[in-house]
Design brief:
It is a single chain. The protein is globular, with a radius of gyration of 32 Å. By secondary structure, the protein is mainly α. Helix content is 60%, strand content 5%.
Protein backbone atom coordinates (compact mmCIF):
# COMPACT_ATOMS: atom_id res chain seq x y z
CA UNK A 1 0.00 0.00 0.00
CA UNK A 2 2.86 2.41 0.61
CA UNK A 3 3.73 2.23 -3.07
CA UNK A 4 0.14 2.17 -4.31
CA UNK A 5 -0.62 5.36 -2.38
CA UNK A 6 1.23 7.46 -4.95
CA UNK A 7 0.99 5.11 -7.87
CA UNK A 8 -1.46 4.55 -10.70
CA UNK A 9 -4.11 3.02 -8.44
CA UNK A 10 -4.34 6.16 -6.31
CA UNK A 11 -3.85 8.93 -8.85
CA UNK A 12 -1.64 9.60 -11.83
CA UNK A 13 1.55 11.05 -10.44
CA UNK A 14 5.18 11.08 -11.50
CA UNK A 15 6.09 8.80 -8.60
CA UNK A 16 4.33 5.85 -10.23
CA UNK A 17 7.13 5.92 -12.82
CA UNK A 18 9.98 7.04 -10.58
CA UNK A 19 9.75 4.30 -7.93
CA UNK A 20 9.75 1.57 -10.56
CA UNK A 21 12.80 3.25 -12.09
CA UNK A 22 14.40 3.43 -8.63
CA UNK A 23 14.09 -0.32 -8.05
CA UNK A 24 15.24 -1.07 -11.61
CA UNK A 25 18.25 1.19 -11.08
CA UNK A 26 19.16 -0.62 -7.86
CA UNK A 27 19.01 -3.99 -9.65
CA UNK A 28 21.18 -2.76 -12.53
CA UNK A 29 23.63 -1.22 -10.06
CA UNK A 30 24.04 -4.56 -8.27
CA UNK A 31 24.59 -6.28 -11.61
CA UNK A 32 27.21 -3.70 -12.58
CA UNK A 33 29.31 -4.01 -9.38
CA UNK A 34 29.11 -7.83 -9.39
CA UNK A 35 30.18 -8.12 -13.01
CA UNK A 36 32.33 -4.99 -13.30
CA UNK A 37 30.80 -4.38 -16.71
CA UNK A 38 30.74 -0.76 -17.95
CA UNK A 39 27.72 -1.78 -20.03
CA UNK A 40 25.66 -2.37 -16.92
CA UNK A 41 27.01 0.89 -15.53
CA UNK A 42 25.82 2.68 -18.66
CA UNK A 43 22.39 1.03 -18.33
CA UNK A 44 22.23 2.20 -14.71
CA UNK A 45 23.06 5.73 -15.90
CA UNK A 46 20.30 5.54 -18.53
CA UNK A 47 17.76 4.50 -15.90
CA UNK A 48 19.03 7.30 -13.65
CA UNK A 49 18.47 9.78 -16.48
CA UNK A 50 14.91 8.51 -16.84
CA UNK A 51 14.33 9.04 -13.13
CA UNK A 52 15.77 12.57 -13.26
CA UNK A 53 13.35 13.39 -16.06
CA UNK A 54 10.34 11.93 -14.24
CA UNK A 55 10.66 12.97 -10.57
CA UNK A 56 12.31 15.70 -8.55
CA UNK A 57 13.17 13.18 -5.84
CA UNK A 58 15.93 11.73 -8.01
CA UNK A 59 18.42 13.14 -5.47
CA UNK A 60 17.71 10.09 -3.32
CA UNK A 61 19.22 7.80 -5.95
CA UNK A 62 21.95 10.37 -6.64
CA UNK A 63 23.19 10.05 -3.05
CA UNK A 64 22.28 6.42 -2.32
CA UNK A 65 24.70 4.87 -4.83
CA UNK A 66 27.71 6.97 -3.67
CA UNK A 67 26.84 6.11 -0.05
CA UNK A 68 26.83 2.42 -0.93
CA UNK A 69 30.23 2.74 -2.60
CA UNK A 70 31.61 4.68 0.37
CA UNK A 71 30.45 1.97 2.81
CA UNK A 72 32.11 -0.69 0.65
CA UNK A 73 35.33 1.33 0.65
CA UNK A 74 35.26 1.66 4.44
CA UNK A 75 34.76 -2.10 4.68
CA UNK A 76 37.89 -2.59 2.54
CA UNK A 77 36.06 -4.07 -0.44
CA UNK A 78 37.41 -1.85 -3.18
CA UNK A 79 38.12 -3.65 -6.45
CA UNK A 80 38.28 -2.86 -10.14
CA UNK A 81 34.66 -3.95 -10.63
CA UNK A 82 33.38 -1.21 -8.33
CA UNK A 83 35.68 1.31 -10.00
CA UNK A 84 34.53 0.45 -13.51
CA UNK A 85 30.84 0.32 -12.54
CA UNK A 86 30.76 3.63 -10.66
CA UNK A 87 32.87 5.60 -13.11
CA UNK A 88 30.77 4.54 -16.09
CA UNK A 89 27.55 5.23 -14.17
CA UNK A 90 28.66 8.62 -12.82
CA UNK A 91 30.12 10.08 -16.00
CA UNK A 92 27.32 8.98 -18.34
CA UNK A 93 24.54 9.66 -15.82
CA UNK A 94 25.78 13.16 -15.00
CA UNK A 95 26.12 14.17 -18.64
CA UNK A 96 22.68 12.79 -19.52
CA UNK A 97 20.95 14.39 -16.51
CA UNK A 98 22.30 17.81 -17.49
CA UNK A 99 20.16 17.63 -20.62
CA UNK A 100 16.94 17.68 -18.55
CA UNK A 101 15.66 21.29 -18.84
CA UNK A 102 14.90 21.99 -15.18
CA UNK A 103 18.12 20.30 -13.99
CA UNK A 104 20.71 21.77 -16.37
CA UNK A 105 23.96 22.37 -14.43
CA UNK A 106 22.64 21.31 -11.02
CA UNK A 107 24.66 18.04 -11.01
CA UNK A 108 27.89 20.06 -10.83
CA UNK A 109 26.73 23.24 -9.06
CA UNK A 110 24.47 22.18 -6.17
CA UNK A 111 25.33 20.71 -2.80
CA UNK A 112 22.85 17.86 -3.29
CA UNK A 113 25.20 16.32 -5.87
CA UNK A 114 28.53 16.91 -4.13
CA UNK A 115 28.54 13.47 -2.51
CA UNK A 116 28.50 11.79 -5.93
CA UNK A 117 31.35 14.01 -7.15
CA UNK A 118 33.31 13.46 -3.94
CA UNK A 119 33.06 9.65 -4.15
CA UNK A 120 34.09 9.80 -7.81
CA UNK A 121 37.21 11.78 -6.87
CA UNK A 122 37.93 9.43 -3.95
CA UNK A 123 37.81 6.44 -6.29
CA UNK A 124 40.37 8.09 -8.58
CA UNK A 125 42.74 8.62 -5.65
CA UNK A 126 42.32 5.04 -4.42
CA UNK A 127 42.84 3.63 -7.91
CA UNK A 128 45.96 5.77 -8.31
CA UNK A 129 47.41 4.51 -5.02
CA UNK A 130 46.52 0.94 -5.90
CA UNK A 131 48.61 1.30 -9.04
CA UNK A 132 51.51 2.93 -7.14
CA UNK A 133 51.53 0.16 -4.57
CA UNK A 134 52.53 -2.32 -7.23
CA UNK A 135 55.52 -0.22 -8.32
CA UNK A 136 56.93 1.36 -5.13
CA UNK A 137 58.62 -0.07 -2.03
CA UNK A 138 56.39 -0.31 1.03
CA UNK A 139 58.16 2.48 2.98
CA UNK A 140 58.06 4.98 0.10
CA UNK A 141 54.47 4.12 -0.66
CA UNK A 142 53.42 4.69 2.96
CA UNK A 143 55.01 8.15 3.14
CA UNK A 144 53.62 9.18 -0.24
CA UNK A 145 50.14 7.92 0.57
CA UNK A 146 49.99 9.75 3.90
CA UNK A 147 51.15 13.01 2.34
CA UNK A 148 48.81 12.71 -0.63
CA UNK A 149 45.75 11.78 1.45
CA UNK A 150 46.21 14.76 3.79
CA UNK A 151 46.85 17.10 0.86
CA UNK A 152 43.87 15.83 -1.12
CA UNK A 153 41.54 16.19 1.84
CA UNK A 154 42.76 19.73 2.58
CA UNK A 155 42.53 20.83 -1.03
CA UNK A 156 39.07 19.28 -1.41
CA UNK A 157 37.60 20.95 1.68
CA UNK A 158 39.22 24.31 0.88
CA UNK A 159 38.10 24.16 -2.74
CA UNK A 160 34.50 23.36 -1.76
CA UNK A 161 34.51 26.25 0.74
CA UNK A 162 35.79 28.66 -1.91
CA UNK A 163 33.20 27.50 -4.44
CA UNK A 164 30.45 27.99 -1.89
CA UNK A 165 31.78 31.40 -0.89
CA UNK A 166 31.60 32.62 -4.49
CA UNK A 167 28.17 30.95 -5.01
CA UNK A 168 29.58 28.69 -7.71
CA UNK A 169 28.21 25.74 -5.74
CA UNK A 170 24.72 26.45 -4.42
CA UNK A 171 24.14 25.91 -0.68
CA UNK A 172 21.87 23.28 0.76
CA UNK A 173 18.20 23.92 0.05
CA UNK A 174 15.46 24.37 2.61
CA UNK A 175 14.08 20.94 1.76
CA UNK A 176 17.41 19.42 2.79
CA UNK A 177 17.42 21.19 6.15
CA UNK A 178 13.79 20.25 6.79
CA UNK A 179 14.77 16.57 6.54
CA UNK A 180 17.22 16.93 9.43
CA UNK A 181 15.31 19.49 11.48
CA UNK A 182 11.55 18.90 11.40
CA UNK A 183 10.90 22.39 12.81
CA UNK A 184 13.06 24.21 10.26
CA UNK A 185 10.35 24.53 7.61
CA UNK A 186 7.80 25.98 10.04
CA UNK A 187 10.24 28.70 11.05
CA UNK A 188 11.84 29.57 7.72
CA UNK A 189 9.93 27.92 4.85
CA UNK A 190 6.18 27.91 5.47
CA UNK A 191 5.54 26.94 1.84
CA UNK A 192 7.15 23.56 2.54
CA UNK A 193 5.55 23.13 5.94
CA UNK A 194 2.11 23.95 4.51
CA UNK A 195 2.05 20.75 2.45
CA UNK A 196 0.44 17.91 4.39
CA UNK A 197 2.69 15.30 2.80
CA UNK A 198 5.75 17.13 4.17
CA UNK A 199 4.68 16.57 7.77
CA UNK A 200 6.32 13.93 10.02
CA UNK A 201 4.74 10.52 9.59
CA UNK A 202 2.27 9.35 12.21
CA UNK A 203 2.74 5.80 13.47
CA UNK A 204 -0.77 4.87 12.39
CA UNK A 205 -0.09 5.96 8.82
CA UNK A 206 3.16 3.99 8.74
CA UNK A 207 1.47 0.83 9.99
CA UNK A 208 -1.49 1.30 7.65
CA UNK A 209 0.83 1.44 4.64
CA UNK A 210 3.34 -1.23 5.73
CA UNK A 211 1.55 -3.47 8.24
CA UNK A 212 3.48 -6.73 8.87
CA UNK A 213 6.48 -5.51 6.86
CA UNK A 214 7.52 -3.26 9.77
CA UNK A 215 8.39 -6.05 12.26
CA UNK A 216 9.86 -8.12 9.41
CA UNK A 217 12.38 -5.36 8.57
CA UNK A 218 14.74 -6.11 11.53
CA UNK A 219 14.59 -9.81 10.68
CA UNK A 220 15.52 -9.10 7.07
CA UNK A 221 18.38 -6.83 8.14
CA UNK A 222 19.66 -9.58 10.45
CA UNK A 223 20.03 -11.96 7.53
CA UNK A 224 21.63 -9.20 5.44
CA UNK A 225 24.23 -8.53 8.15
CA UNK A 226 24.81 -12.26 8.46
CA UNK A 227 25.57 -12.71 4.78
CA UNK A 228 27.02 -9.19 4.11
CA UNK A 229 27.56 -9.50 0.38
CA UNK A 230 27.55 -6.37 -1.78
CA UNK A 231 23.85 -6.59 -2.52
CA UNK A 232 23.07 -7.11 1.17
CA UNK A 233 25.08 -4.00 2.09
CA UNK A 234 22.99 -2.04 -0.40
CA UNK A 235 19.76 -3.30 1.22
CA UNK A 236 21.08 -2.29 4.66
CA UNK A 237 22.11 1.21 3.54
CA UNK A 238 18.89 1.71 1.61
CA UNK A 239 16.74 0.47 4.53
CA UNK A 240 18.35 2.67 7.17
CA UNK A 241 18.27 5.86 5.11
CA UNK A 242 14.75 5.32 3.75
CA UNK A 243 13.39 4.47 7.21
CA UNK A 244 14.68 7.73 8.63
CA UNK A 245 13.38 9.85 5.75
CA UNK A 246 9.98 8.12 5.79
CA UNK A 247 9.68 8.94 9.50
CA UNK A 248 10.37 12.68 9.07
CA UNK A 249 8.26 13.21 5.93
CA UNK A 250 5.10 11.27 5.14
CA UNK A 251 5.49 11.43 1.35
CA UNK A 252 8.80 9.54 1.59
CA UNK A 253 7.00 6.39 2.71
CA UNK A 254 6.98 5.85 -1.02
CA UNK A 255 10.76 5.36 -1.12
CA UNK A 256 10.68 3.00 1.88
CA UNK A 257 8.09 0.63 0.42
CA UNK A 258 10.35 -1.19 -2.12
CA UNK A 259 13.24 -1.92 0.24
CA UNK A 260 10.87 -2.86 3.05
CA UNK A 261 9.32 -5.45 0.75
CA UNK A 262 12.78 -6.74 -0.16
CA UNK A 263 13.95 -7.00 3.45
CA UNK A 264 10.71 -8.72 4.51
CA UNK A 265 11.01 -11.12 1.58
CA UNK A 266 14.56 -12.02 2.64
CA UNK A 267 13.34 -12.77 6.18
CA UNK A 268 10.32 -14.84 5.12
CA UNK A 269 12.30 -16.67 2.44
CA UNK A 270 15.04 -17.57 4.92
CA UNK A 271 12.51 -18.87 7.46
CA UNK A 272 10.57 -20.91 4.91
CA UNK A 273 13.75 -22.24 3.36
CA UNK A 274 14.95 -23.43 6.77
CA UNK A 275 11.78 -25.14 7.97
CA UNK A 276 10.54 -26.42 4.62
CA UNK A 277 14.00 -27.90 4.18
CA UNK A 278 13.58 -29.72 7.48
CA UNK A 279 10.32 -31.26 6.29
CA UNK A 280 11.89 -32.44 3.05
CA UNK A 281 15.00 -33.80 4.81
CA UNK A 282 13.10 -35.56 7.58
CA UNK A 283 10.74 -37.08 5.03
CA UNK A 284 13.66 -38.47 3.04
CA UNK A 285 15.31 -39.85 6.17
CA UNK A 286 12.09 -41.50 7.30
CA UNK A 287 11.79 -43.23 3.97
CA UNK A 288 15.35 -44.54 4.16
CA UNK A 289 15.53 -45.53 7.86
CA UNK A 290 13.11 -46.25 10.70
CA UNK A 291 15.62 -46.04 13.55
CA UNK A 292 14.32 -42.70 14.98
CA UNK A 293 10.74 -42.16 13.72
CA UNK A 294 9.76 -40.10 16.79
CA UNK A 295 12.54 -37.57 16.21
CA UNK A 296 11.50 -37.10 12.57
CA UNK A 297 7.87 -36.52 13.56
CA UNK A 298 8.87 -33.91 16.17
CA UNK A 299 11.02 -32.09 13.63
CA UNK A 300 8.23 -31.94 11.08
CA UNK A 301 5.69 -30.86 13.73
CA UNK A 302 7.94 -27.97 14.76
CA UNK A 303 8.30 -26.97 11.12
CA UNK A 304 4.52 -26.93 10.64
CA UNK A 305 4.07 -24.86 13.81
CA UNK A 306 6.34 -22.20 12.28
CA UNK A 307 5.25 -22.42 8.64
CA UNK A 308 1.48 -22.32 9.13
CA UNK A 309 1.43 -19.01 11.09
CA UNK A 310 3.86 -17.47 8.59
CA UNK A 311 1.64 -18.44 5.67
CA UNK A 312 -1.42 -17.13 7.52
CA UNK A 313 0.28 -13.79 8.18
CA UNK A 314 1.30 -13.49 4.54
CA UNK A 315 -2.26 -14.28 3.43
CA UNK A 316 -3.67 -11.62 5.75
CA UNK A 317 -1.11 -9.14 4.44
CA UNK A 318 -2.26 -9.79 0.89
CA UNK A 319 -5.85 -9.28 2.01
CA UNK A 320 -4.86 -6.00 3.71
CA UNK A 321 -3.12 -4.79 0.55
CA UNK A 322 -6.15 -5.57 -1.62
CA UNK A 323 -8.55 -3.95 0.87
CA UNK A 324 -6.37 -0.84 1.17
CA UNK A 325 -6.04 -0.51 -2.59
CA UNK A 326 -9.79 -0.88 -3.03
CA UNK A 327 -11.05 1.43 -0.30
CA UNK A 328 -8.25 3.93 0.32
CA UNK A 329 -6.20 4.28 -2.86
CA UNK A 330 -8.45 3.45 -5.79
CA UNK A 331 -10.66 6.54 -5.83
CA UNK A 332 -9.41 9.23 -8.21
CA UNK A 333 -8.67 12.46 -6.40
CA UNK A 334 -10.71 14.48 -8.87
CA UNK A 335 -13.97 12.65 -8.08
CA UNK A 336 -15.22 12.37 -4.51
CA UNK A 337 -17.54 9.70 -3.15
CA UNK A 338 -19.93 10.18 -0.27
CA UNK A 339 -22.70 8.22 1.35
CA UNK A 340 -26.26 8.86 2.47
CA UNK A 341 -27.81 7.65 5.70
CA UNK A 342 -29.41 4.77 3.82
CA UNK A 343 -26.02 3.58 2.57
CA UNK A 344 -26.46 4.88 -0.97
CA UNK A 345 -23.24 6.10 -2.59
CA UNK A 346 -23.17 9.66 -3.89
CA UNK A 347 -20.64 10.71 -6.52
CA UNK A 348 -19.43 14.29 -6.17
CA UNK A 349 -18.14 15.51 -9.51
CA UNK A 350 -17.83 19.24 -8.86
CA UNK A 351 -14.15 19.40 -9.85
CA UNK A 352 -14.64 18.01 -13.34
CA UNK A 353 -17.76 20.11 -13.86
CA UNK A 354 -15.85 23.29 -12.97
CA UNK A 355 -12.86 22.41 -15.15
CA UNK A 356 -15.19 21.57 -18.04
CA UNK A 357 -16.91 24.93 -17.63
CA UNK A 358 -13.55 26.71 -17.79
CA UNK A 359 -12.54 24.79 -20.91
CA UNK A 360 -15.81 25.52 -22.72
CA UNK A 361 -16.58 29.06 -21.57
CA UNK A 362 -13.27 30.90 -21.39
CA UNK A 363 -10.76 32.04 -23.98
CA UNK A 364 -7.85 29.74 -24.70
CA UNK A 365 -5.42 32.36 -23.45
CA UNK A 366 -7.26 32.92 -20.16
CA UNK A 367 -5.10 32.91 -17.02
CA UNK A 368 -6.54 31.26 -13.92
CA UNK A 369 -5.40 32.18 -10.41
CA UNK A 370 -5.86 29.58 -7.70
CA UNK A 371 -3.78 28.20 -4.89
CA UNK A 372 -0.92 26.04 -6.15
CA UNK A 373 -2.17 22.72 -4.70
CA UNK A 374 -4.39 21.96 -7.68
CA UNK A 375 -2.40 23.78 -10.34
CA UNK A 376 -1.48 20.61 -12.26
CA UNK A 377 -5.03 19.30 -12.11
CA UNK A 378 -6.54 22.61 -13.13
CA UNK A 379 -4.18 23.12 -16.06
CA UNK A 380 -4.56 19.56 -17.32
CA UNK A 381 -8.34 19.31 -17.08
CA UNK A 382 -9.31 22.83 -18.10
CA UNK A 383 -6.54 23.29 -20.70
CA UNK A 384 -5.94 26.80 -19.42
CA UNK A 385 -2.88 28.60 -18.05
CA UNK A 386 -2.50 28.65 -14.26
CA UNK A 387 -0.48 31.29 -12.43
CA UNK A 388 1.04 28.78 -9.97
CA UNK A 389 1.13 25.00 -9.86
CA UNK A 390 2.83 22.13 -8.06
CA UNK A 391 6.10 22.71 -9.91
CA UNK A 392 6.40 26.45 -9.26
CA UNK A 393 9.91 26.89 -7.88
CA UNK A 394 9.58 30.68 -7.51
CA UNK A 395 8.53 31.16 -3.89
CA UNK A 396 8.01 34.87 -4.49
CA UNK A 397 5.40 34.13 -7.15
CA UNK A 398 3.49 31.79 -4.84
CA UNK A 399 3.72 34.30 -2.00
CA UNK A 400 2.33 37.00 -4.32
CA UNK A 401 -0.72 34.85 -5.04
CA UNK A 402 -1.10 34.29 -1.30
CA UNK A 403 -0.91 38.04 -0.74
CA UNK A 404 -3.70 38.59 -3.26
CA UNK A 405 -5.96 36.23 -1.29
CA UNK A 406 -5.06 37.86 2.05
CA UNK A 407 -5.42 41.53 1.08
CA UNK A 408 -8.73 43.36 1.11
CA UNK A 409 -10.90 42.76 -1.92
CA UNK A 410 -12.00 46.32 -2.71
CA UNK A 411 -9.87 48.72 -4.69
CA UNK A 412 -9.39 52.33 -3.54
CA UNK A 413 -9.27 55.76 -5.12
CA UNK A 414 -5.54 56.48 -5.24
CA UNK A 415 -6.26 60.17 -5.82
CA UNK A 416 -7.40 60.40 -2.20
CA UNK A 417 -3.94 59.54 -0.91
CA UNK A 418 -1.10 61.96 -0.37
CA UNK A 419 1.20 61.65 -3.43
CA UNK A 420 4.38 61.58 -1.33
CA UNK A 421 3.00 58.89 0.98
CA UNK A 422 1.76 56.93 -2.04
CA UNK A 423 5.19 57.12 -3.68
CA UNK A 424 6.86 55.94 -0.49
CA UNK A 425 4.48 52.97 -0.13
CA UNK A 426 4.91 52.04 -3.79
CA UNK A 427 8.68 52.18 -3.40
CA UNK A 428 8.42 49.68 -0.55
CA UNK A 429 6.38 47.35 -2.77
CA UNK A 430 3.11 47.91 -0.91
CA UNK A 431 -0.01 47.25 -3.01
CA UNK A 432 -2.12 50.20 -1.87
CA UNK A 433 -4.83 49.20 -4.30
CA UNK A 434 -5.59 45.96 -2.44
CA UNK A 435 -5.92 42.54 -4.06
CA UNK A 436 -7.16 44.04 -7.33
CA UNK A 437 -3.78 45.65 -8.01
CA UNK A 438 -2.11 42.26 -7.48
CA UNK A 439 -4.59 40.53 -9.80
CA UNK A 440 -3.98 43.16 -12.46
CA UNK A 441 -0.21 42.86 -12.18
CA UNK A 442 -0.36 39.06 -12.40
CA UNK A 443 -2.75 39.22 -15.36
CA UNK A 444 -5.35 36.97 -13.69
CA UNK A 445 -8.51 36.75 -15.79
CA UNK A 446 -10.30 34.35 -13.42
CA UNK A 447 -9.94 33.40 -9.77
CA UNK A 448 -10.86 29.90 -8.60
CA UNK A 449 -11.40 28.95 -4.96
CA UNK A 450 -12.45 25.80 -3.14
CA UNK A 451 -15.11 26.17 -0.46
CA UNK A 452 -15.92 23.10 1.63
CA UNK A 453 -18.25 24.70 4.15
CA UNK A 454 -21.42 23.59 2.35
CA UNK A 455 -20.29 20.00 1.74
CA UNK A 456 -17.87 19.40 4.62
CA UNK A 457 -14.84 18.98 2.31
CA UNK A 458 -11.66 19.12 4.41
CA UNK A 459 -9.23 20.35 1.74
CA UNK A 460 -10.82 23.71 0.99
CA UNK A 461 -9.01 27.03 0.78
CA UNK A 462 -10.30 28.38 4.09
CA UNK A 463 -8.56 25.54 5.92
CA UNK A 464 -5.39 26.41 4.02
CA UNK A 465 -5.69 30.14 4.62
CA UNK A 466 -3.45 30.19 7.69
CA UNK A 467 -0.62 28.66 5.66
CA UNK A 468 -1.38 30.91 2.69
CA UNK A 469 -1.03 33.94 4.96
CA UNK A 470 2.19 32.61 6.55
CA UNK A 471 3.74 32.10 3.12
CA UNK A 472 2.75 35.61 2.04
CA UNK A 473 3.88 37.11 5.35
CA UNK A 474 7.29 35.48 4.97
CA UNK A 475 8.03 37.80 2.01
CA UNK A 476 5.46 40.60 2.38
CA UNK A 477 5.37 41.10 6.11
CA UNK A 478 4.74 44.83 5.75
CA UNK A 479 1.39 44.11 4.07
CA UNK A 480 0.21 40.73 5.36
CA UNK A 481 0.22 39.67 9.01
CA UNK A 482 -1.38 36.46 10.17
CA UNK A 483 -2.40 38.04 13.48
CA UNK A 484 -4.61 40.61 11.74
CA UNK A 485 -6.78 37.89 10.24
CA UNK A 486 -7.22 36.00 13.52
CA UNK A 487 -9.71 36.72 16.28
CA UNK A 488 -8.64 39.11 18.99
CA UNK A 489 -8.01 36.22 21.39
CA UNK A 490 -5.76 34.52 18.79
CA UNK A 491 -8.05 31.50 18.52
CA UNK A 492 -7.91 31.38 14.74
CA UNK A 493 -10.17 32.70 12.01
CA UNK A 494 -13.93 32.91 12.46
CA UNK A 495 -16.43 33.38 9.63
CA UNK A 496 -18.99 34.69 12.13
CA UNK A 497 -19.51 38.06 13.81
CA UNK A 498 -16.57 37.48 16.15
CA UNK A 499 -14.12 37.28 13.27
CA UNK A 500 -11.48 39.87 12.49
CA UNK A 501 -12.55 42.80 10.26
CA UNK A 502 -9.37 42.26 8.23
CA UNK A 503 -10.44 38.67 7.60
CA UNK A 504 -13.94 39.70 6.57
CA UNK A 505 -12.49 42.20 4.07
CA UNK A 506 -10.01 39.72 2.57
CA UNK A 507 -10.45 38.41 -0.95
CA UNK A 508 -10.44 34.77 0.17
CA UNK A 509 -13.26 35.31 2.68
CA UNK A 510 -15.45 37.18 0.23
CA UNK A 511 -14.99 34.70 -2.62
CA UNK A 512 -15.73 31.67 -0.44
CA UNK A 513 -18.61 33.02 1.65
CA UNK A 514 -20.37 35.17 -0.93
CA UNK A 515 -24.12 34.36 -0.92
CA UNK A 516 -23.68 31.60 1.66
CA UNK A 517 -26.05 33.42 4.00
CA UNK A 518 -28.55 33.84 1.17
CA UNK A 519 -28.27 30.13 0.36
CA UNK A 520 -29.53 29.31 3.85
CA UNK A 521 -32.21 32.02 3.63
CA UNK A 522 -33.56 31.50 0.15
CA UNK A 523 -37.00 32.94 0.86
CA UNK A 524 -37.97 36.15 -1.01
CA UNK A 525 -38.63 38.13 2.16
CA UNK A 526 -35.25 37.20 3.63
CA UNK A 527 -33.43 38.09 0.43
CA UNK A 528 -35.27 41.41 0.15
CA UNK A 529 -34.51 42.32 3.76
CA UNK A 530 -30.83 41.48 3.37
CA UNK A 531 -30.59 43.42 0.13
CA UNK A 532 -32.35 46.45 1.55
CA UNK A 533 -30.05 47.16 4.45
CA UNK A 534 -26.92 46.11 2.60
CA UNK A 535 -27.22 48.48 -0.34
CA UNK A 536 -28.23 51.46 1.78
CA UNK A 537 -25.81 51.15 4.65
CA UNK A 538 -22.80 49.68 2.86
CA UNK A 539 -22.60 52.78 0.64
CA UNK A 540 -21.89 54.91 3.69
CA UNK A 541 -19.17 52.51 4.80
CA UNK A 542 -17.64 52.43 1.32
CA UNK A 543 -17.51 56.25 1.24
CA UNK A 544 -15.49 56.18 4.46
CA UNK A 545 -13.19 53.46 3.16
CA UNK A 546 -12.72 55.10 -0.23
CA UNK A 547 -11.60 58.25 1.54
CA UNK A 548 -8.85 56.21 3.19
CA UNK A 549 -10.24 56.76 6.68
CA UNK A 550 -9.59 54.12 9.31
CA UNK A 551 -12.63 55.47 11.19
CA UNK A 552 -14.69 53.30 8.87
CA UNK A 553 -13.89 50.23 10.96
CA UNK A 554 -15.68 51.21 14.20
CA UNK A 555 -18.44 52.71 12.07
CA UNK A 556 -18.73 49.39 10.26
CA UNK A 557 -18.99 47.44 13.49
CA UNK A 558 -21.56 49.82 14.99
CA UNK A 559 -23.86 49.44 11.99
CA UNK A 560 -23.55 45.65 11.97
CA UNK A 561 -24.27 45.42 15.71
CA UNK A 562 -27.41 47.51 15.30
CA UNK A 563 -28.97 45.28 12.67
CA UNK A 564 -32.08 43.31 13.42
CA UNK A 565 -31.20 39.63 13.02
CA UNK A 566 -34.34 38.26 14.72
CA UNK A 567 -36.56 38.24 11.67
CA UNK A 568 -38.57 34.98 11.84
CA UNK A 569 -37.75 33.82 8.31
CA UNK A 570 -33.98 34.19 8.80
CA UNK A 571 -31.98 31.06 9.60
CA UNK A 572 -28.40 31.01 10.82
CA UNK A 573 -25.96 30.04 8.06
CA UNK A 574 -23.56 27.33 9.24
CA UNK A 575 -20.14 26.45 7.91
CA UNK A 576 -20.51 22.68 8.17
CA UNK A 577 -16.79 21.97 7.88
CA UNK A 578 -15.68 24.27 10.69
CA UNK A 579 -19.02 24.07 12.56
CA UNK A 580 -19.17 27.84 12.88
CA UNK A 581 -22.02 30.25 12.11
CA UNK A 582 -21.47 32.54 9.13
CA UNK A 583 -22.07 36.29 9.33
CA UNK A 584 -25.65 37.13 8.44
CA UNK A 585 -24.46 40.00 6.26
CA UNK A 586 -24.62 40.13 2.50
CA UNK A 587 -21.15 40.17 0.96
CA UNK A 588 -20.50 42.67 -1.80
CA UNK A 589 -17.65 42.04 -4.26
CA UNK A 590 -16.78 44.99 -6.49
CA UNK A 591 -13.64 43.96 -8.38
CA UNK A 592 -14.77 40.49 -9.51
CA UNK A 593 -18.01 38.97 -10.68
CA UNK A 594 -19.19 35.45 -9.98
CA UNK A 595 -19.44 33.37 -13.14
CA UNK A 596 -19.68 29.81 -11.86
CA UNK A 597 -20.47 27.90 -8.66
CA UNK A 598 -20.65 24.12 -8.72
CA UNK A 599 -23.78 22.27 -7.68
CA UNK A 600 -22.48 21.56 -4.17
CA UNK A 601 -20.69 24.91 -3.84
CA UNK A 602 -17.34 23.15 -3.75
CA UNK A 603 -15.72 25.09 -6.62
CA UNK A 604 -16.35 28.79 -7.21
CA UNK A 605 -15.03 30.82 -10.13
CA UNK A 606 -14.95 34.61 -10.41
CA UNK A 607 -14.00 36.80 -13.35
CA UNK A 608 -11.78 39.83 -12.82
CA UNK A 609 -13.46 43.04 -13.90
CA UNK A 610 -11.58 45.43 -16.20
CA UNK A 611 -10.48 48.80 -14.93
CA UNK A 612 -13.09 51.52 -15.06
CA UNK A 613 -12.64 53.70 -18.18
CA UNK A 614 -13.43 56.82 -16.12
CA UNK A 615 -10.71 56.02 -13.56
CA UNK A 616 -13.25 55.38 -10.80
CA UNK A 617 -12.98 52.61 -8.29
CA UNK A 618 -15.32 49.69 -8.86
CA UNK A 619 -17.29 50.65 -5.77
CA UNK A 620 -17.80 54.17 -7.12
CA UNK A 621 -18.87 52.81 -10.48
CA UNK A 622 -21.35 50.42 -8.84
CA UNK A 623 -22.77 53.22 -6.72
CA UNK A 624 -23.15 55.47 -9.75
CA UNK A 625 -24.99 52.74 -11.67
CA UNK A 626 -27.43 52.31 -8.78
CA UNK A 627 -27.91 56.05 -8.51
CA UNK A 628 -26.58 56.26 -4.96
CA UNK A 629 -23.35 58.02 -5.82
CA UNK A 630 -22.98 60.99 -8.14
CA UNK A 631 -19.39 61.94 -7.47
CA UNK A 632 -17.23 62.28 -10.52
CA UNK A 633 -13.54 61.55 -10.74
CA UNK A 634 -11.37 64.70 -10.59
CA UNK A 635 -10.05 63.98 -14.07
CA UNK A 636 -13.58 63.90 -15.54
CA UNK A 637 -15.09 67.29 -16.34
Amino acid sequence: PGYISRSVAGSFDNECIAIFILTLGMWLWIKSIKTGSPSYGALTATVYFYMVASWGGYAFLTNLIPLHVLVLLVMGRFDQKIYAAYCSYFVIGTIMSMHVPYVKYNPITTSDHMSAIGVFGLLQIIAFFTMLKRHLPASDFQRLSNLTMVGSFTIGVAGLAVLKAFNIVAPWTGRFYSLWDTGYAKKHLPIIASVSEHQPTAWGQLFFDMQILIPLLPAGLYFCFKRARQEHILVIVYSLTATYFAAVMVRLILTLAPVLSIAAAIAVSSVLDTFLGKIVRTGAKDGASHDHPKKGIQSRLLSYIVIVPVMYIMTMFVWHCVWTAQHAYSSPSIILAGGKHNGQTVIIDDFRDAYTWLRENTDEGARIMSWWDYGYQLAGMSERTTLVDNNTWNNTHIATVGKAFALRESDVDLQKFDPNALAELSGRGVDVGGSYSVLSRLGADYVLVMYGGALGYQGDDINKLSWIVKIAENLFGNEVQEGLLQNQDGSGIDPGDNGSPHYHRSLMYKLCYKDVYEMYNAGPSAQAAAKQWTEEQMDEIEEEWVDGSESALPFLNSIFQGLDTTTPDRKPAIDRLRNRPVRNKRIQIDTLEEVYTSSRWLVRIFKTKPKDPLFRTHAQARGFERGTSFRQHPFVS
